[in-house]
Specification:
The structure holds two protein chains of two kinds. By secondary structure, chain A is α+β, with helices and mostly antiparallel strands. Chain A is built from eight helices and 13 strands. In chain A, the strands form two sheets. Chain A has a nine-stranded mixed β-sheet with strand order 4-3-2-6-5-1-11-12-13. A four-stranded antiparallel β-sheet of chain A has the order 7-8-9-10, with helices on one face. The longest helix of chain B is centred in the N-terminal third of the chain and has 20 residues. Chain B has a nine-stranded mixed β-sheet. Chain B is of the alpha+beta class. Chain B starts with a strand and ends with a strand. Chain B has one domain: Glutamine Phosphoribosylpyrophosphate, subunit 1, domain 1, CATH 3.60.20. Classes of the chains: A alpha+beta, B alpha+beta. Chain B: Belongs to the Ntn-hydrolase family. Chain B: GO terms for molecular function: asparaginase activity; beta-aspartyl-peptidase activity. Chain B: This is Asparaginase 2 domain containing protein.
Chain lengths: 303, 308
């Protein structure tokens, strides 16, 4: 099996072309980071975690640093991670002041009998495992403050300019993993939890079938159980590309809201689809990097 | 379509002493839900009322009578979903609220969101005029003893030794074929503070789609979440399986794969029912016309005339 690391930097309107270029640079970097981990002795879970961490650390993405703000001007984050070998999973929701929620989600998976920790409990768990919380406000950026102010003025259901980040990976033995992380929706109520912490909506991985990470209008993704729907479609024989395209389309038609997803089948095939205006994505396979952000756009570069 | 309200009171290792309490509780809940439908209420009203009656009932691990977390406190999860438009609402790790299922419904109806957690959920409750109970009001004697038991023997179970307790849920279909599902829980005995469950996850604890069916699950929460149990059952029904076959097969697959037990109730869009569990017991009941059907043991299906 040829190892692959496929990432997305969020589905949304992304009307600013300059931002689009930054997002592309970010996802390309994340795919390379994940791929390097995978091909230098790291496991597939390490690889997707590393790819997502790199995007959490970059201000341009709506995850970790640079997360959108809730109604009270604070950052509350969700993340989930899943291993295809035995369906182990871990997630956190509405957690504050943690630099890398995806790593905290991984700790939930590795160090507890649970799959999801919320709010204060999640933060306490972090401290128990020597993860030092940041100063309150450390993850708030000028850009996110400005964005919230603009949103308050308009008070409109702003189609997410920024989106969730995620990664799926397959190693040389066919082992799969998926990881997703987000700051959620602009101006959301305090405590608003998202599809990103939900196994089956934001994230899913099963070595018998494939791995998926989703992004876009969270409420819609959750109602449709998008990740699990794509998995089930592949189980019934659809290719990664067909399953992703069909499920995203079905969801969009039924619920009138948009989203995107990245998928790997257990044979290493790639699926990328989105009904939003744009979705930044990139994957590395061998020494080639594939990437895009607009519909039907697909570039290839030698690494 | 003949209206039906089908409820469960939790799957697990229910001890003999708790069996009568559970059976009485689920029969009462099913008839309460059914009465709502008969008097012109919606399917959402029906499942909400059925679940509320079990949240009030100490015999069940939801609302009052919820199991405790490691700090000795009650933290609850609940979700509700409408089959007509897939709208849903949920709360997770919410404290000191008598009816988490009603709060979940408010999230669905009064916010653009589908799930509120922790402090945020409690604050939303206050803003909505939902009373906050004094701290500790939902802690029952049995739950306290169950936690002591856990601290001594260190074993997370949804149904504990002498203190049988489990998640509750309801699914319903009305005369027009509209469906809803609702699930509510106190979680797992001795869980970590902040531990959220399958019951707060659409697709795991709860699902409803008028094109397919409605499902509510119960049992080992982490396994249910990893398997996306409710959605997996829905998927089988979508592909032509009856509610009974979909429920049985999916539960079997989950239990085989993840080595943990669960139970589920389901209604298909044709009105046929699925009731199954791989745990030792699961209390369930449904009302159709003037008959109440119920059971708790494997293979048990008892019928009696409804009292209302």
């Amino acid at each position: 099996m040829e190892p692959v690391i496929l990432v997305h930097g969020g589905a949304g309107a992304i009307s600013d072309d300059a931002k689009a270029q930054e997002l592309l640079a970010g996802v390309k970097g994340a795919a390379k980071t994940g791929y390097k981990v995978l091909t230098s002795g790291g496991g597939v879970v390490d690889a997707v975690e590393a790819a997502v961490r790199s995007m959490e650390d970059e201000e341009i993405f709506n995850a970790g640093l640079g997360s959108v703000l809730n109604l009270e001007g604070e950052v509350e984050m969700d993340a989930s991670i899943m291993v295809g070998s035995d369906l182990s999973a871990g997630a956190v929701t509405v957690v504050k002041d943690i630099k890398n929620p995806i790593s905290l989600a991984r700790l939930v998976m590795d160090k507890t009998d649970h799959v999801l920790l919320a709010a204060e409990g999640a933060k306490k768990f972090a401290q128990l495992h020597k993860v030092v919380p940041l100063q309150p406000g450390a993850l708030v950026t000028d850009a996110s403050k400005k964005a919230l102010a603009k949103w308050r003025e308009k008070q409109v259901e702003a189609s997410a300019e920024l989106g969730t980040v995620g990664a799926v990976g397959i190693d040389s033995d066919g082992g799969l993993a998926a990881a997703t992380s987000t700051g959620g929706r602009q101006g959301k109520l305090a405590g608003r939890s998202s599809d990103t912490c939900m196994i089956g909506s934001g994230t899913y991985a099963d070595d018998n079938i494939g791995a998926v990470s989703t992004t876009g209008h969270g409420e819609t993704i959750a109602k449709f159980c998008l990740a699990h729907s794509i998995i089930k479609a592949m189980e019934r024989g659809q290719s990664a590309e067909e399953a992703t395209q069909n499920c995203v389309e079905l969801m969009t038609k039924r619920l009138n809201n948009t989203a995107g997803a990245i998928t790997l089948s257990n044979r290493g095939e790639v699926g990328v689809a989105f009904s939003t205006n744009r979705m930044s994505w990139a994957y590395q396979k061998g020494d080639h990097l594939y990437f895009g952000i607009d519909k039907n756009e697909r570039h290839i570069e030698k690494v | 379509m003949e209206p039906i309200v089908l409820v469960h009171g939790g799957a697990g290792d229910i001890p003999d002493s708790r069996v009568p309490l559970k059976l009485n509780g689920v029969k009462k809940a099913a008839s309460i839900g059914y009465r709502v439908l008969k008097r012109g209420g919606s399917v959402v009203d029906a499942v909400e009322e059925a679940v509320k009656s079990m949240e009030d009932d100490e015999a069940f691990n939801a609302g009052y009578g919820s199991v405790l977390n490691l700090d000795g406190e009650v933290e609850m999860d609940a979700t509700i979903m409408i089959g007509a438009n897939l709208n849903s609402g949920g709360v997770t790790v919410v404290k000191d609220i008598a009816h988490p299922i009603s709060l979940a419904r408010l999230v669905m109806e009064r916010t653009p969101h589908f799930l509120l957690a922790g402090e945020g959920a409690n604050r939303f409750a206050k803003v909505q005029g939902v009373p906050t109970l004094p701290a500790g009001s939902l802690v029952s004697k049995y739950a306290r003893e169950a936690l002591e038991d856990f601290k001594k023997h260190g074993d997370n179970r949804t149904e504990i030794g002498e203190k049988g307790v489990g998640t509750v849920g309801a699914v319903a279909i009305d005369s027009k074929g509209r469906m809803a599902a609702a699930t509510s829980t106190g979680g797992i005995n001795g869980k970590m503070v902040g531990r959220s469950s399958d019951t707060s996850i659409i697709g795991s604890g709860t699902y409803a789609d008028d094109n397919v069916g409605a499902v509510s699950t119960t049992g080992h929460g982490e396994s249910i979440a990893r398997f996306c149990l409710a959605h997996a059952i829905i998927y089988e029904m979508k592909n032509g399986s009856s509610a009974a076959v979909a429920t049985a097969n999916t539960l079997k697959a989950m239990t085989e794969k993840l080595k943990n037990t669960a139970g589920a109730i389901a209604i298909s869009k044709g009105g046929d029912l699925g009731i199954d569990f791989t745990s030792k017991r699961m209390a369930w009941a449904y009302q159709i016309k003037d008959e109440i059907h119920f059971g708790i043991e494997h293979g048990q299906h008892t019928k009696e005339k409804a009292k209302n």
